[in-house]
Amino acid sequence: MLAFTHIAAGCASSLLVSGALNVQPSQTILVLGGGILGSMMPDIDHPQSAFGKRVLPLSIPIATVFGHRGITHSLLAVAGMSWLIWWSLHHLHWHQGYAVPVVVGVATGYLSHLVGDWLTNSGVPLLWPSNRRFVSPLKLCTGDLREYLLAFVMYGWSLMECLRMLM
Ligand SMILES: [Zn+2]
Question: What pTM was computed for the model?
Answer without folding.
Answer: 0.94
